[in-house]
Amino acid sequence: MMQTSPLSAEKHGKLRLVEQTDFSDHREENLVPVVFQEFSALATEFPLVFVRNKKTGDFMPSALMGLDKGINLYCQTTSWRSTFIPTSFTLAPLMVARLGSKAEDSEIVIDENSPLLSETTGESLFDTDGEPTKFLETKIDNVVKITGQSLQAVEICRYLAENKLLISRTLKLQHSDKSRRYEIEGVFVIDDQMLKNVPDKKFQELRDRGLLAMIYAHLVSLQQVHKLTRMQQQFDLKELNS
After folding, report:
1. Any bridge partners for residue 111, and if so which?
2. Which pTM does this prediction carry?
């Protein structure tokens, strides 16, 4: 069970952190939150979609990593199966409790029960004077940056929704006539027909905001569903024969 505490040299001065390479703790997340800054790299591997937070109604970009709810095809073993690792996988055991304009203005908490922490293995978090090591400073900067980008992603999604560029889709996927048929509901994509009919002024606004590259990366990424259906069929056959 996670147990968070404000990061401090007094309490965590002896701790070391091992860089995570095993992401099997995400094995039940078939939709993984991502940020727009990752889209170009992610689009070559995963279908990128938008999902809605049921509590807030806000949208968040996500990478689809499995067709069956609760099964991430990339995280069923301790070996990561892609060349690109979503940054949300690399932040543990650090989190932002309060986001400031700069890393030093933010409050960072640490999961004291994380298996990545020990007093004997990994990189030191603090030096002998109780100051953050370069390793820790880099980790904190990254956590703060990604947290800020995640908040930015919510705002961008609001803009897309307000301009009616997001449309609900039910993904009906099947690798072959003999394989299992999957229906994934509750996902949204960019409405390419609406995008084609966007007035010139609004199109210019999308370009000025730097959103066109993200939109095109998203649309191209949807072709990755074919690879995902193949992976899902292989997984289903393995489960059937085990």
Report:
1. 4
2. 0.91
For residue range 70-87, what is the model confidence (pLDDT) as tens digits? 999 999 999 998 989 999
CA torsion sign for 89, 101, 57, 193 is: negative
Those residues with Cβ within 8 angstroms of residue 103's Cβ, 6 or more apart along the chain or in another chain: 137, 140, 141, 144
C-beta contacts of 92-97 below 8 A and 24+ residues apart? 92/20, 92/116, 93/17, 93/117, 94/7, 94/139, 94/140, 94/143, 95/4, 95/143, 96/143, 96/144, 96/147, 97/4, 97/6
Contacts 24+ apart (CB under 8 A), 66-69: 66/30, 66/228, 66/232, 67/30, 67/173, 67/182, 67/184, 67/228, 67/229, 67/232, 68/30, 68/182, 68/232, 69/30
- Give per-residue pLDDT as tens, 205-219: 999 999 999 999 999
DSSP letters of 76-88?
SSSS--SS---GG
What DSSP letter does each residue of 45-111 carry, written as one string? TS-EEEEE-TTT--EEEEEE--SSTT--TTSSSSS--SS---GGGS-TTEEEEE--SSGGGSEEEEE
Task: Give the whole-angstrom CA distance, residue 173 versus residue 213.
Answer: 27
Backbone phi, psi, residue 81, to 5°: -100, 5
The one-letter amino acid at 11:
K
Q: In angstroms, rounded to a whole number, what is the distance separating the alpha carbons of residues 60 and 55?
A: 13
Cα gap 242→165, rounded to integer Å: 44
Cα 69 to Cα 18, 65, 79, 182, 185, distances in angstroms: 30, 10, 21, 10, 10
